[in-house]
Amino acid sequence: MVICVYGAGSVGCYTGGRLAAAGAEVVFIGRERTARQLTWHGLTLTDWRGAELRVPEPRYETTPGAVAEADLVLLTVKSAATADAAVEMGPLLKPGAVVVSFQNGMRNTEKLHD
User: Fold this and answer.
1) 102 with 74: CB under 8 angstroms?
2) Cβ proximity of 36 and 12 under 8 Å
3) What are phi and psi of 27, to 5 degrees?
């Protein structure tokens, strides 16, 4: 199963990073600045209990095309960007792909469905 984190900033990198650190195949999609940081430093995850997990070479893309590989998409863009994200990734999703909204706000799932 390929998991795609669409909008991989702080929340998306943490969520996808935990999955990648556990062995899942994760593709992150987000901003160029974040891609550069992860290319240079990898991804280090910590939590309040003292856990420290490393994903040394995360796969991070800056264009929506990688979403076409995903069986599961975790959408972590800001709520105001939901409609734009849906328009970008909608035509690229493979049949049967599941999209889960990890967003604050109301009616995000309705925007995605439309």
Assistant:
1) yes
2) no
3) -115, 125
Note the pLDDT of residue 14.
94
Torsion of CA 34, 102, 43, 48, to 10 degrees: 130
CA atoms within 13 A on the CB side of 55: 25
Kind of pairing, strands 52-55 and 43-46?
antiparallel
Tokens of 64: 């929506």
What tokens were used for 84?
Answer: 């734009």
Judge contact between 34 and 7, C-beta under 8 A: no
Per-residue pLDDT of 8-38, as tens digits, reads 988 999 999 999 999 999 999 999 999 999 8
Rounded to 5°, the CA angle 18-23-24 comes to 75
Q: Residue 104: pLDDT above 80?
A: no
| Interatomic CA distance for residues 86 and 99, integer angstroms | 10
Measure the CA–CA gap between 85 and 73, rounded to whole angstroms.
Answer: 12
